[in-house]
Amino acid sequence: QVQLVESGGGSVQVGGSLRLSCTASTWHYDSVCVAWFRQAPHREREGVAVIDRNGNTNYAEFVKGRFTISRGNAISYLQMNNLKPEDTAMYYCAVDQACYSGSLGLKAESWGGAYWGQGTQVTVSS
Question: What angle do CA 21, 18, 44 make, to 5 degrees?
């Protein structure tokens, strides 16, 4: 079984930074796609960033220039800089064998067959 765990969330002031990590249990694929999503109460889950099998990245317009998705010892990292109150949400990572490029990769419905973590809370105070 595959288990994903997000960590690194917390409370930060406006303009601060956080680095989220997504770790995975045993994963037998050499390359995977990873996405970060976020969801605030009573809001739809929205795509934040995607990194595909080849390392290509795609970002939602509302985080461009502020967030960076990457790979490393963890299955994925999400560096978040210049945080804003509207960034407050539960952040989730999703992992799949393949993914769509462009805007389709940022749609939750495109990750229906993916493995999802339980989320980590990010709160930005104003």
Answer: 75
- % the chain with pLDDT above 90: 81
- Token readout for 23 is 């770790």
| Rounded Cα gap, residues 95 and 85, in angstroms | 27
Burial bucket for residue 26 (CB in 10 Å: 0-12, 13-18, 19+): exposed
CA distance 124 to 103: 26
31 pLDDT tier (thresholds 50, 70, 90): confident
User: pLDDT digits over 95-104, tens only?
Assistant: 999 999 889 9
Q: Are strands 10-13 and 120-125 parallel, antiparallel or unpaired?
A: parallel
